[in-house]
């Protein structure tokens, strides 16, 4: 048994300690008595007392200064750790340019595969901001949002992923809009879809990235069936998803560069089901503007309930006006209205007079992965700036929804449409073929709307239609 745990040794230790403490106490009392007698009866007693007090104060001040200096000193540097981290590998706080990337790769569904991939990315100073997993039958598709050094080439990043077990890697640049977690993004897209029927294609495009969306109506303009019969739960192929369109017909989504996963299929089906349950809906906003001559007009969103009023406007339009708008037989103009006014295929703005008569329509149409703009203004209301105002608002909508380019198809003789496009102040591309003019504009940066008189009264009159 050791001394620390022996009862006899511990008892002898306590007795020795007590004797020493008593001896020290008696010694201190004796010294104190001697000092007191010296101070009280000696001639230099007060001097010794003041000198002792000064010495104590000086010692106390020195102790405080010493403790503060050493108490706030930085901890000693670990020379071993500092030697192992070279300056090139140490992170720089705000001093290194970075780039955001969205990446997908397929890894084996086995323990340690994801850890190996993350370790390889960390070795390249790549920060993983978010991670989503898409389980498959023969593996797992991992979707990353990465912040990588700007000097790291995409080929080097892909090579790093391949070397750590990733396969079928897909990489594209990301932006600040991608810094949102998946649940928050889905809630935002569901809210957009619930407020406006026209938002479903845009929400799907934002959810899936670069893809092409085709809305096929149930019947053609002449009544011939067009859309195929789609099961209620939808169909998932490798690069294609097909659903029943809530407005009738079918909705097909294609993405050749990247296969769809079952997780994405479930998310899309949830948005389509939400759109189906809510039915057709259009925001009720109405803006009242005053034209230069003093007449007031109302601009609002239109839908299929305005078909009868649109037909009446067709009857008041001349054959030349209808031909410039529809590029075909005038007798077919009414047949296009069901497609043009449906929120599934885009957004439509209507212009009404104070009496409620429809005098103009402006369409922003989702054409696959492109966007088309078209205008129709009744003859009696042309040359008043209505077409230019509609075009500005439609371009602002296109900019808000992230459309990179918008094109208008007209005839080379339609100087009014050309002037309205030029009045936007945007870069334009012109393409003419057999008398048909295609004008393409990039709406980035277009303001949402201007005031009534500023929008209608252009300085040179070039924005009038």
The CATH homologous superfamily of the largest domain is called: Gcn5-related N-acetyltransferase (GNAT)
Kindly give the count of domains.
3
User: What fraction strand?
Assistant: 15-25%
Radius of gyration: 40 Å
- Report the biggest beta sheet as strand number plus sense, adding barrel if it closes: 5 strands, antiparallel
Q: Kindly state the mean pLDDT as a whole number?
A: 77
Quick one: overall form?
A: elongated
| Helix content, binned percent | 25-40%
* CATH architecture classification of the largest domain: 3-Layer(aba) Sandwich
Q: Helix count, per DSSP? A: 14
**Total DSSP E strands:** 16
CATH class of the largest domain: Alpha Beta
Helix/strand class = alpha+beta
Give the low-confidence spans.
Answer: 1-7, 9-13, 70-93, 445-465
| H and E string | HHHEHEEHEHHEEEEHEEHHHEEEHEHEEH
Question: Can you give a write-up of this model?
Answer:
The chain contains 14 helices and 16 strands. It is an alpha+beta fold and 465 residues long. The strands form four sheets. A five-stranded antiparallel sheet has the order 9-10-11-12-13, with helices on both faces. β11 and β12 (358-367) form a beta hairpin. α1 (7-41) crosses α2 (45-71) and α7 (199-208) runs antiparallel to α8. The protein starts with 6 loop residues before the first helix and ends in a 9-residue tail after the last helix.
